[in-house]
Amino acid sequence: MNTPEFRAPRGTFDLVPPRGEAMLAVRDALAAPLRTAGYGYVETPSFEETTLFARGVGESTDIVTKEMYSFTTRGGDDVTLRPEGTAPVLRAVLENGLHRGALPVKLWYSGSYYRYERPQKGRYRHFSQVGAEILGTEDPASDAELIVLAVDAYRALGLTGVRVLLNSLGSHESRPAYRAALQEFLRRLDLDDETARRVEINPLRVLDDKRPEIQKALTDAPVITDFLSPSDRAHHATVRSLLTAAGVAFEDDPRLVRGLDYYTRTLFEFVHDGLGSQSAVGGGGRYDGLSELLGGPALPGVGWALGADRTLLAMEAEGLPLPGATGVQVFAVPLGEEAAAWAFSLVTSLRREGVTADFATGGRGLKGAMKAADRSGAKYAVVVGERDLAEGVAQVKDLATGEQQAVSVNGLVTHLKRLV
Ligand code: ATP
Ligand code: MG
Q1: Residue 7 in domain
Q2: Which one of 28, 42, 198, 233 counts the least CB within 10 Å of its CB?
Q3: What percent of the chain has pLDDT over 90?
Q4: What is the pLDDT, as a whole number, of residue 341?
Q5: Is residue 58 in some structural domain?
Q6: In the record, which residues are listed under signal peptide (predicted)?
Q7: Which domain holds residue 349?
């Protein structure tokens, strides 16, 4: 065994076939319902000014305090590899003036994200998300729409074990009273210094503390549901009834807060029980004040990000076949130099006609070339020697049954097109 000199950095991994294709297929499937729903596609740089995330994700979040890949460029700019997509997309919307056109603006995106996390199964330093945002409306139908589209994406991949957790954090009408009540409760607990500090800065985040002893101490903590204003309550009720009407089951989770500071009203998470402690396959919520935080006008919004890596792990946990690895339909096996040139043009014609095809290279003998044909996943091999060519035919072999048939080279592309 040779030990390679270089390895992928800690917390990262390569996607090689067939998992590479599976990841592509997962990303496509997560985005498909958005495209069907008419969302526009947006792409932003993979790094941004560090202050965008500090402000747009929140100074007290784990992401900003512990997980950012930040560096100073040669030119002295402080930049950060994007840990999430919402702040960059909102930055792009404001910068490009999309919010001055027809509202709402509905966008989707897909790409790599970077967080300096403790690597473990389902938690990486480089990972892949598909995201969606609806900007410029407070309508609860948008919150419900996004949840339905995510659930439809998971369903289309064949996943049956994704659960929807739902909460409302309330708006500025409800939050202050809840925050105060929660703070009062938390101040009475015996907490470590860091957590006690968090109680003063952002008490809701304490609810997100995963430590069992903290969770136990929170059993009797006040819940936001009891503090929602009439309009927040009505907003939440509409989201719930639209989900029910769409046949989407959900579980109320009044403790759900999630990592970002900017959430208001609707908050949700998609979890899968086959993933161990990294159970969230996606999540999102409403963030009505974020635009103002970034120096923009009032622009309410709601969005989600689905983790492609964990979605693939969830499919494996459910024993679903890896999607996307198709191989080719036809594999050409030339015997001799003249046949090799002919096979090259056959394969080129097939590909141009939309038939997926490959061929044996390097003047391989029949045995090795047939092995390559089997590995290619092709249903048919086209075997040609100099004698076949002289007779104007090629041998088309069904690789499943072993049946072989001489076909005239003139009609061969049409013949194969019909077969596959
Ligand atoms: P977690 O609670 O697991 O840390 P999160 O709340 O930080 O998740 P979000 O910021 O909401 O996650 O990102 C949306 C989705 O992206 C997550 O539900 C998850 O599927 C995926 N994700 C987040 N961080 C990672 C990571 N480090 N590695 C792989 N996937 C991730
Ligand atoms: Mg996290």
Answers
A1: no
A2: 233
A3: 90
A4: 95
A5: yes
A6: none
A7: 330-419
Task: Please state the atom number of ligand 1 nearest to the C-alpha of residue 115.
Answer: 27
Same domain, 237 and 283: yes
What's the pTM? 0.93
Ligand 1 pocket, mutate which of 113, 209, 256, 271 (most atoms under 8 A from CB): 113
Which ligand gives the minimal distance to the CA of 115? 1
Residue 269, φ and ψ in degrees, nearest 5: -140, 145
- Domain tally for the chain? 2
Question: Which residue has its alpha carbon closest to ligand 1 atom 8?
Answer: 280
Whether 23 and 116 map to the same domain: the answer is: yes
310 and 361, same domain (yes or no): no
Whether residues 270 and 362 fall in one domain: no
Q: Name the domain boundary from 317, 350, 368.
A: 317
- Residue 289: CA count within 13 A, CB half-sphere: 16
249 and 158 part of one domain: yes
- Please write the tens of the pLDDT for every residue from 115-126: 999 999 999 999
> Which atom of ligand 1 is nearest the CA belonging to 282?
18
* C-alpha span between 318 and 272 (Å, rounded): 10
Check pocket membership of 124 for ligand 1, CB cut-off 6 A: yes
* For residue 83, pLDDT beyond 90: yes
Mean pLDDT of the chain: 95
Distance 259 CA to ligand 2 centre (A): 7
* Per-residue model confidence as pLDDT tens digits over 279-300: 999 999 999 999 999 999 999 9
**Residue 129 near residue 121 (C-beta atoms within 8 A):** no
Ligand-binding annotation for 133, yes or no, is yes
- Residue reference for tokens 């995963």: 210
Cβ count within 10 A of residue 326? 11
End-to-end CA distance of the chain: 41
What does the pLDDT read at residue 110?
Answer: 98
